[in-house]
Amino acid sequence: MAYSDKVMDHYDNPRNVGKMDDTDDSVGTGMVGAPACGDVMRLQIKVNAAGIIEDAKFKTYGCGSAIASSSLLTEWVKGRTLDEAASIKNTEIAEELALPPVKIHCSVLAEDAIKAAVKDFRTKHAADQQSAVAVGE
Amino acid sequence: MKLPIYFDYAATTPVDPRVAQKMSECLLAEGNFGNPASRSHKYGWEAEEAVELARRQVADLINADPREIVWTSGATESDNLAIKGVAHFYKNKGKHLITSRIEHKAVLDTCRHLEREGFEVTYLEPGSDGIVTPEQVAEAIREDTVLVSIMHVNNEIGVINDIAAIGEVCRAKKVFFHVDAAQSAGKIDIDLEAMKVDLMSFSAHKMYGPKGVGALYVRRKPRIRLEAQMHGGGHERGMRSGTLATHQLVGMGEACRIVKAEMHDEQIRIGALRERLWQGLQDIEEVHVNGSFDKRVPGWLNVSFNYVEGESLIMSLSDLAVSSGSACTSASLEPSYVLRALGLNDEMAHSSLRFSVGRFTSEDDVDYALAKIHLAVDKLRELSPLWDMYKDGVDLTKIEWAAH
Fold first, then answer.
1. B378 to chain A, minimum CA–CA distance in Å?
2. How far from chain centre, in Å, is Cα B59?
3. Is A63 a residue of the active site?
4. Which residues pair with B176 in a beta bridge?
5. What is the helix (H) or strand (E) element at residue B257, kind and residue range?
6. Residues 41-80, chain A, touching B (beta carbon < 8 A)
7. B46 in contact with A at a CB cutoff of 8 Å?
8. Which end of chain B has a smaller Cβ tally under 10 Å, C or N?
9. Gap between the Cα atoms of B80 and B109, Å rounded
10. What residues does [2Fe-2S] cluster bind to (chain B) (predicted)?
């Protein structure tokens, strides 16, 4: 498989590899994929009080394109709002990395991962808001 | 050290310089370029002589009669000729064939083709060690079975089937027995005087001969007949027409002569290299050998590195020429059907690498590979969420993954 220079760069020097405490309220975690399919991505975002993503970490089990897609995504989401991050399209990732057609599913997985992380963060905070209301009563 | 280092002798081997020399003598105007079928002049006679010497060299390797050797373009053609040739010739006797799930595609696809023509095929499941037993074959044989086709050594895992015992079963039940020996010839002893095998396929390029040439052994006593697949000038006693490629056949003959003379010493050396590789991997956690460890050809190791995906592993090992059972390295996006048939789950199939060492592999090559493998596995496990979970004691089989 001949990869683009950008894929090779992210593969050789993956950005933002790591793990955050997923019980931390400011952290949203998205884990997508399945080992049986050959790729699993875990993407985590840390969101500040203003609703801006200030940090992102990933770990990915998968082929070079899957690793590059998730590495690139962590760079892109930093500094963005949750809505902006959730609106990133797989086609943008595939285009940036010049993924070959058989590897498009890796960019789809990355899009799913950020959507799942944003959803996880929002779910956590929906619960917070409800309990805050409950305390107020 | 020439990079990437070649660890894919199971895929093909470089031509031995002694073989290349012999071949080069059969090409130019001043060399032995004649058509072996030309009966009317010296050019033809000399070419025929060279081809017949090569035929004897192939026969000698497997303790057969030279008249039992039919030249082909390689093991794929040999498999096609053997299986279709028997099925078509004996179709009035029966239309049932037996093979295994982990045969080479040259056998499986040929069987599929026959199924479309109305033949029935039983596909035996190997054990988790990759071995098909004589008992399985005996149970599967029916009244209308005409042919059993079982490989000697599997091309992905290097595991050896007991074809002598399977041959006894087939002969006792009067069923023809074909063996794909592309991966065993030149690595382990084959004695067709002793083994009850009726047809056997060979390939030159797996034993330091050229690509594009192979042979089919066709037993004379008891006689077996084939319907030709290639029609034309009636070469090879009508079984395979086409002008004999003198340089290719001479190359295969010389390759057989060399392995016959050197096989035993060579396999000891190669086995030691494989052992060095395996011992060097022992300090990596969660490394598993695929297929039987004991019943395998000396030079091969098919291993799975759990929690690491095979294609990314290969990317990290760009200095090593290895192959993977991972889906991502295949056009189909399906993991290896051989590893799946052994009962490996998809993850382990995705994480597999096949190392095969050979004539030109050195200890330094193996040590270099070991250093690279350690770096790559460490790096990718550091990147792997599955490794994190394994280390945290999470049972990955209990998680409901969203398959995509």
1. 13
2. 19
3. no
4. B147
5. helix B246-280
6. 41-42, 59-64, 66-67
7. no
8. N
9. 9
10. 328
Chain A contact for B347 (CB, 8 A cutoff):
yes
Q: Is residue B349 classed as helix, strand or coil in its secondary structure?
A: helix
Q: Does B388 touch chain A (CB under 8 A)?
A: yes
Backbone phi and psi for residue A99, each to the nearest 5 degrees, phi listed first: -70, 140
CA angle B43, B48, B54 (to 5 degrees): 135
Nearest alpha carbon to residue B244 among B20, B83, B32, B63: B32
Q: List the single residue in B328, B331, B386 with the smallest CB-CB distance to A40.
A: B386
Task: Enumerate the residues of chain A whose CB falls inside 8 A of the CB of residue B329.
Answer: 1
Q: What tens digit of pLDDT does each residue of B306-315 get?
A: 999 988 998 8
Those residues with Cβ within 8 angstroms of residue A111's Cβ, 6 or more apart along the chain or in another chain: A88, A89, A90, A93
Half-sphere CA count of B304, side-chain side, radius 13 A = 23
B307 touches A at CB < 8 Å: yes
Please tell me whether B75 is known to bind a ligand: yes
- Smallest CA–CA distance, residue B401 to chain A, in Å, is 5
DSSP A21-86: -TTSTTEEEEEEEEGGGTEEEEEEEEE-TTSBEEEEEEEEES-HHHHHHHHHHHHHHTT-BHHHHH
Q: Tell me what ipTM this predicted complex has.
A: 0.90
CB-CB contact of A88 with A73 (8 Å): yes
Known catalytic membership, residue A37: yes
- One digit per residue, pLDDT tens: chain A, 137 residues? 578 999 999 999 999 999 999 899 999 999 999 988 889 999 999 999 999 999 999 999 999 999 999 999 999 999 999 999 999 999 999 999 999 988 999 999 999 999 999 999 999 988 666 655 554 44
Flag if B401 and A3 touch (Cβ within 8 Å).
no
> What's B150's DSSP letter?
-
Q: Does A100 touch chain B (CB under 8 A)?
A: no
Amino acid, single-letter form, for residue B58: V
Residue with tokens 């209301």: A133
